[in-house]
Amino acid sequence: MIPLPARIGLLVLISTAFYTYVGQLVPQKEVQPPQETVLRADLTTADMVTVGRQIMEGKGLCLTCHTIGKSGALRFPDLDGIASRAATREPGLDALEYFAKSIYAPDAFIVSGFNPGMPVINKPPIGLTDQEILCVIAYLQTLGGTATVTLQTSHRYYTPPGATPGAAPEEKAGGEKPTTPPAANEPAGAPTAPPAVAPPAKKGEV
Amino acid sequence: MKGVNNRKLLFVFGPITGLVMFGAVLFIATFLTDREYREPDRVPVAAVDQTPRAAGLADETAAAEAANRAKPYVEAEYRRFPGVGSRVAIWAVAQLHLLFAAFVLAVPIFAVLIEAIGYKTGDKRYDRLAYEFTKLLSVSFSLTATFGAFLTFMLIALYPKFTNYLMSVFSPTFLPYVLLFFLEAFFLYTYYYGWGKFHPLVHLGLGIGLNVVGTGIMLIANAWLTFMMSPAGISDTGAVISVSDAITNYTWMPINVHRVIANVAFGGSVAAAYAAFKFLSAKTDEERAHYDWMGYIGNFVAIISFLPLPFAGYWLAKEIYAYSQTLGLTMMGGAFSWLFIIQAVLIGNLFLGANYYLWLGMGRVEGAQPFQRFVKYLLAAIVLCFMIWATPRSIIATVSEIRAMGGGTHPILGFLGVMSAKNTAVNILILTTFMSFLLYRRTGKISTVSWAKTGQRVQLLIFGAAAIFVIFLGVYGYFVEASVRIGLSVPQVSSVLFAMVSIMAIDVFLYRKPRETGITRWGKMPAVSQYVLIFIAVTFTWLMGLMGYVRSGLRQHWHVYGVIRDTSPDAFTPTLGFATQVVSVTVLIFFALIGFVFWLASLHDLPDYGAETQASHSHGPVGAPSVDYARGGPELAEGPALAVETPGEHGRIS
User: Where is B164: in which H helix or E strand?
Assistant: First the structure.
């Protein structure tokens, strides 16, 4: 006969072992803190698209809530085809300015059927830099459109160093502002090449 | 000869243990201090000839001393704890501190309530029960304080810069905290040692004072930890603007409410585990009857507090979302989403265990057969709800399985993984458990009021309407936009709460003076029921550890969310598997220590050394009441009829 304290001890041990085992059955993912990144000044638009996608999946946490290509009872708007909708979503705003406003002042305009809920992305805890946000916009432009932004693109929330504040490019006929065009033979929106990394190589740099 | 040897052994046992422990402390201290580099001992330069080599060494020493003197003070940001690392060390100590603190805060709440029932009804059994619960407090209080001091030192040693920052923000709260701590010691020990020595109302006042002071301490400590999660009252760079805003931050009050309820549930389960331990080691029927009753009440306290806990959890989650969507989504949709599947397993086990105990409890009441036939339906409902709640939204699958499903979500089961289904399942789970309790409460009784049938029909109607309403809203949630769906949990919760309160209110009047159809045979419970109580306590403890982890871990790589970043090597969020291992280790340490507390409390009942022979001729241990367990009803208000001899004027049994 096992003594009572041993029986109780065994029960406690087996119960905790069972819960530990359950803990091993779920997906195991170690989440590292986001690395501080420095974007090269000469990133092409195609590079920015790739970087933007990486930021949306990682540091920006965008795809924690937003989906791409899903329908049904969603909690946050699906981003598939957003580039085409963005140009006409808010009167007076072209796609670029709409994207910028959505990211810098997310509660200023809420898509019908959804609740406010998006955090301000350019402040902690997420804290994307202005250049990183431009990369995110570049990627968003590929979802139903063509990426056109560069790191020199300005909008009402950001003016790149050296550019004249408020000197946003003139609007095109279709409501789209002409941004700095991608370099020739670099098809925007085709994120095939890996992003250029600024030397010297620094951990987490893209 | 053997006896002499044993006596000698016992005589040296204490000192040897003390020496071994002292040696262990010395070893740890030496180990830690030896890790620091020191200059080797050298003969003083003045005592040797000034040879070129000696002069060189002297110059070297002088240069080193000068460099040491000129060394600027640099505040260390982090220090490394050997072996497991700083984060795990702090985690384990904080968790142990919180577990004991929860117990020490919870037990006085229901001890005072039980004592008040005893005072109101004049029934000494309740007084004794309250005293028995209180017996567990004093050692637990010391352990809480010890772990609290340990945690403070660990924070100062391992995270000096961050601790310094927290101290700078909350320094105005420290003096009130210490004052309340003194008061808590005063009230606790006066309440415990003053049992039977004061007028009952004075004693009850001491108990209430203990609860007020204990809650005050918890409120202050909660301000510190909730500030880390949802900081307020500071500038973007962390400069203090308003201490009162820092205290009353977004998650402070929801955590306060959640913790009070959870503490009572946890404390009740641990007290029930103590009763189970005593039941299983009981030598007489009287003891078994008493500890069966005590276990029943401990479990009753645990489950009745547990039922509203998910609602407090909703509120806390809502406030987390209100403070920061990012924080909320990290919790429910990001790194921690799978943790809630583990939580579902734990809570499912708690519901199963609690219901099983109630169903077993029906066996101790004569005339329980009419109700026992419902058990299989209740079990089916609980298992179904459990399965729905534990269904993940996305399923771990191989590439071929994902292809076969057409995505990461199962075409049918995927619908059960969303909040509409889960909210519905947990609400039905709560209603089912409430039904189990209601059936148990009625076992062996027939209502004698003239409106009995009408009353029961109204109860059934309310129950059915609540269940249908909850399921309807759950299904409706699939067809509406997110902005509408999120709001549906409120009427679901409200309808369940309304059903429980109104049905219980009717039940109290229905069975005010019932006709007894059978007696309650306290102590006539199978041993497995007591192991169920221990299992429930382990599960509660583990659940507290897990939810403590998610609350704290949500901040991820931030000490103070969005303000003070964690730049230590431990800033990453570990895997859930690793987290569950740490939780398990702390739970095992807690049970080893609480086992020690149980053992100490049991010593109280043993006869004095030398009086064993004399005591062996009497019935049961000193202070054990003689029990007429053929009387007494099945519910809280009707425990075993104890013919208690009360040495104190207030019914103290000791």
Answer: helix B160-193
